[in-house]
Amino acid sequence: MRRIKLTTRKASTNVAAILIAVVSLGGAAFLAAQPRSSSPPAADQNSSAAKAGHARALAIRVKPRSRSVSQGGVAQFRIRIRRTSPVTQSGRRPTVKLRILRGLPPGATATFMRKRTRNRISTLTVDTGSAAIGIHRMRIRARSNGKHATALARLTIAPVQSADFQISADSTTPLAPGVSVPVDLTLTNPQTREIAITSLDARVSNVTAPGASPGLPCTVDDFAVIPFSGAYGFEVAAAGTTSLSKLDFPSSEWPQLKMLDRPVNQDGCKDASLTLAYGGTSTVGAP
After folding, report:
1. In sequence order, which residues have a C-beta less than 8 Å from that of residue 146 and are 6 or more positions away?
2. Helices (H), strands (E): how many in the chain?
3. What is the DSSP letter of 227?
4. What b/e readout covers 201-225, taking b as 16+ CB neighbours within 10 angstroms?
5. What is the rounded distance in angstroms from the CA atom of residue 287 to the CA atom of residue 283?
């Protein structure tokens, strides 16, 4: 496998700058060798906020601690639950009840994927609806067996205002028919204020296949990109660079580059080169 040169071009209004990444297919495998960001990951720490007597029995963390969305948008937070309470006689963990204690802005609605749960993870979805623009600090409480813990989550509701940013990608996993490869996107914010990412997209825009022929074709129809499936509203710091992996998105939620396993001979795709185009939109966060 060899390292491939990358080029970039400016995107249209309201769309992020697009990075064109050429990757090489050797036999039935591909390698995308692209530079990684050297910027440190954004801080993403959240105290459990459990009070002294209960800290060892029950604690929760909200990740990320802060979400920013445009007015009317939807934000999601992961809630991680840690407890040391003994299991019940049936061998099951005790139920934890979750609720927003205060700070949910008027006009917004909140839903827990698991409001009563024995699991270690739940998800809080906030639909900002008609809530006011600004920074809202929500306190989330968990209760279990008479113990409780709280954690803070910051929700920034920003006016709808587009902002340019740059996208690059990094993948070193071989590609073969029927195989999907996760693509870790690196995002760079040239703005002087933090931005919230509201969409990401990727597509195979061109295929150059020297081994293709009318009897052994190789086209963009042999490939597909499965979209990013994580929660939008995540932030990129002012003049900062981060990536989906640094933002703690699991690789299963990254865009997935896939070579389709078609019911025809695909030898024409050997030694082919793919052109991948990335794009997206964002809004400027509230001051």
Report:
1. none
2. 0, 21
3. P
4. bbbbeebebeebeeeebbeeebbeb
5. 12
Beta carbons of 152 and 163 less than 8 angstroms apart:
no
Summarised one tens digit per residue, pLDDT across range 102-120 is 999 999 999 998 778 888 8
Q: pTM for the complete prediction?
A: 0.53
CA 129 – CA 143 distance, rounded (Å): 28
DSSP string computed for 268-282: GGTT-EEEEEEEEEE
What is the C-alpha to C-alpha distance for residues 285 and 236, in angstroms, rounded to an integer? 10
147-158 vs 66-70, strand pairing mode: parallel
Closest CA to 59 of 143, 124, 139, 138: 143
Phi, psi dihedral angles at 113 (to 5 degrees) = -60, -40
User: Alpha-carbon distance 205 to 21, whole Å?
Assistant: 10
Structure tokens at 83: 């407890």
What pLDDT digit, counting tens, does each position of 75-111 carry? 899 999 987 755 555 667 788 999 999 999 999 999 9
